[in-house]
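FIELD: query
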Amino acid sequence: MFVAFRVWTLSLIFLLPLFTQSAHALKGGPLKDGVYKPGKLILAGKRLRCGKVKTLVSSNYWKTAGSIPGLIGLNPRKLKKYSRVEQWFIYTHECGHQYVGKSERRADCWASKNGRRQGWLKKSGLQKICRTLRNDPAKAPYPSGKVRCRIMKRCF
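FIELD: result
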């Protein structure tokens, strides 16, 4: 009986990290409405930070995402339709506005550079983002999806 208990205990010790990792990934889970302090936001399983900027998550926000100085806004219901890399790019694009101002082109470039530098944006992810944007027409203040992709690829 002692041997069986010891084997079970050792198995549990070796398997526990697998369960803990799964549980930790679930902690990020669906975004809950509220204000997240810098470094506390987990989006699509990844902890994201934009300097000292807070993030407001609201299911009632009319856009998918937006940015004003000192605050990024996200609508979790609208973000759900995007892949993980697209969600991270959306957040990083909004973060870019904190550094480059209102220019959508410069925010796209900033997000592309930073996503690559941080290691989560690969060429395949950029292609996925471009497939999503490819048919978007130009609509102020955004250039067309094709133009946005050219900018992102140039900055990547």
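FIELD: remark
The two ends are 60 Å apart (CA to CA).
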